[in-house]
Amino acid sequence: MRSKEAVRTCLVEGGLVACETVWAEVAASAALRGLLDDVVEVIRGGSHRPLLAGALAHVAVAAIHPSNDGNGRVARLLHCLAVSRGTGLLARPGID
């Protein structure tokens, strides 16, 4: 089940900030854990090519919309994690 929630979004471009409140569909809290577990499985599972796994993780987090703020940042981070785990392109010592 999904519900609608007011979310404040801001865009910064060329030193200008434009903010607005939009209504976003969010996953019901009861379903959230299972949906996020599915995202983790895509990243860990290894059944997809790394770039595809990253794209799937990004789209899934954006669609689930688990929090009021930071969904885009988390989605981009998970994309980088999936690509890094599969290719080593973004690997750094001590980060895995």
Report on this structure.
The chain is of the alpha+beta class. It has a domain at 26-87. The protein is 51% helix and 25% strand. It contains three helices and two strands, in the order E-E-H-H-H. The chain has a two-stranded antiparallel ribbon with strand order 1-2. Helix 1 runs antiparallel to helix 2 and helix 2 runs antiparallel to helix 3. It starts with a strand and ends in a 9-residue tail after the last helix. The mean pLDDT is 75.
Q: What brief labels describe this structure?
A:
two-stranded antiparallel ribbon, 25% strand
The end-to-end span amounts to 34 Å
Beta-strand content bin: 25-35%
> Into which percent range does the helicity of residues fall?
40-55%
Calculate the mean pLDDT score and round it: 75
Q: What can be said about the biggest beta sheet?
A: 2 strands, antiparallel
* String of helices and strands: EEHHH
Q: How many DSSP H or I helices?
A: 3
Radius of gyration over C-alpha positions, nearest whole angstrom? 15 Å
The structural class is: alpha+beta
Return residue spans where pLDDT drops below 50 for at least 5 consecutive residues: none
Name the overall outline: flat
How many beta strands in the DSSP annotation? 2
